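Researcher: Let's do a round of design. I'm pasting the structure tokens now; please hold your answer until I've finished.
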């Protein structure tokens, strides 16, 4: 299973490759030809294992479609979010369409893990491979989002290690993938599964890990003392300008004095955080809120402070999202009837949504930058319902033609993310110009 499968995936509804096996598992009917085709059999690579024809060996197309739909939503948010605030990321509390992208990816990774690690013959080897895949993702994310590339309007590249951004989207996915993979490899029993209760019992240790992480996150978020702090940004004539932020509180979930930001400043260093915080579009920090705009005359001191939306403490709840997706993958493995699968998906999905709105009502607001508990629940519940809808449409009723584009995008999700979302393709195109760097194709079409 290659690194790219963390997002792209190699998910099958029932037959999944063993992570410890380097052979190719090729169903006769879905591999190189129909059963009995001698030419096809001769063309099989050395070491290939023939699997008997089985309807269970078909790829879980709905997961590819879901992944592709998430990629399309990500591109829409990146390109059109600035024009339509309803789909752009929420400045702080509350959720918009854009705030579902990251949790959807994490949920999908969890579902794929449940299928890929259905059978593990050597736990140590599988763990070692999972660590290597997570490291590859983190290194790739560091190159793409650490500041090495300077954007589509700047042909220079390179990053000062003193200011490199350590965290990012792929790093968060890599961390969540690793923890969920370790749970799937080591924390499951051998109990037989014939009902929803027995499914919970078989994976009770994974559920305990998710509960422990949630409690750990909640204790730190509401229990840590956040002292006063300060930061510096370049001012006029390149001179550094210092701002002081007064806190001295516990349990604050506002932009300035939350424990999520404090932990990142203490451990990662404020110079290594994302320099364009989402809260710069709040009413306190922008006269054009919820869009970017000039600072109001009475703007608070924290408006321009760095803040990483993929920080350390918030990534704890991202792991929980991945673990929830993992449980949805278990349903596919242990239940073969469509009705059983749908039933065991709908119950937790609606339960998570109900819990999310209850928490929000009682003051635990949905918040993406903090990755709050209510945000975790609402996005995971929405992911579950959307996955059920796509599954019914594609895998139950077989409507693949209308979703072919999404399926293709889902099978090439990481490549699309690198080329489009990380601006690698635009930067490459911009590198070819006529006499002057401004005379390039991107400038001609208004990008």
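Researcher: That's everything. Go ahead.
Model: Designed sequence:
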């Amino acid at each position: 299973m290659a690194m790219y499968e963390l997002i792209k995936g190699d998910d099958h509804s029932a037959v999944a490759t063993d992570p410890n096996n380097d052979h190719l598992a090729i169903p006769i009917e879905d591999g190189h030809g129909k059963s009995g085709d001698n030419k096809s059999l001769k063309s099989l690579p050395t070491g290939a294992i023939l699997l008997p024809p089985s309807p269970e060996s078909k790829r879980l197309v709905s997961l590819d479609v879901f992944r592709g739909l998430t990629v399309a939503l990500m591109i829409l948010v990146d390109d059109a979010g600035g024009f339509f605030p309803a789909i752009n990321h929420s400045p702080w509390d509350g959720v918009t369409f854009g705030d579902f992208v990251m949790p959807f990816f994490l949920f999908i990774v969890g579902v794929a893990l449940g299928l890929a690690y259905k059978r593990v013959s050597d736990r140590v080897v599988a763990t070692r491979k999972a660590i290597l895949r997570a490291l590859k993702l983190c290194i790739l994310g560091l190159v793409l989002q650490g500041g090495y590339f300077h954007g589509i309007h700047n042909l220079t590249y390179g990053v000062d290690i003193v200011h490199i951004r350590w965290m990012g989207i792929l790093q968060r996915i890599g961390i969540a993938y690793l923890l969920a993979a370790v749970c799937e490899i080591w924390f499951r029993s051998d109990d037989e599964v014939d009902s929803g209760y027995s499914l919970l019992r078989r994976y009770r240790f994974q559920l305990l890990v998710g509960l422990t992480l949630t409690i750990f996150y909640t204790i730190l978020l509401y229990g840590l003392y956040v002292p006063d702090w300060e930061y510096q940004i370049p001012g006029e004539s390149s001179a550094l300008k210092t701002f002081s932020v007064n806190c001295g509180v516990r349990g604050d979930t506002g932009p300035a004095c939350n424990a999520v930001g404090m932990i990142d400043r203490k451990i990662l260093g404020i110079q290594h955080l994302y320099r364009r915080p989402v809260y710069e579009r709040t009413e306190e920090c922008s006269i054009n809120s919820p869009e970017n705009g000039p600072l109001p005359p009475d703007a608070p001191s924290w408006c321009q402070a760095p803040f990483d939306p993929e920080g350390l403490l918030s990534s704890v709840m991202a792991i929980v999202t991945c673990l929830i997706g993992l449980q949805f993958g278990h349903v596919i493995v242990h239940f073969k009837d469509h009705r059983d699968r749908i039933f065991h998906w709908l119950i937790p999905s609606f339960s998570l949504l109900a819990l999310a709105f209850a928490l929000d009502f009682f003051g635990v607001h949905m918040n993406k930058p903090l990755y709050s508990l209510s945000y975790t629940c609402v996005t995971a519940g929405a992911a579950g319902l959307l996955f059920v809808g796509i599954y019914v449409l594609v895998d139950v009723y077989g409507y693949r033609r209308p979703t072919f584009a999404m399926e293709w995008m889902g099978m090439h999700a990481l490549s699309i993310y690198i080329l489009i979302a990380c601006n690698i393709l635009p930067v490459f195109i911009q590198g070819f110009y006529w006499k002057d760097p401004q005379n390039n194709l991107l400038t001609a079409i208004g990008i």
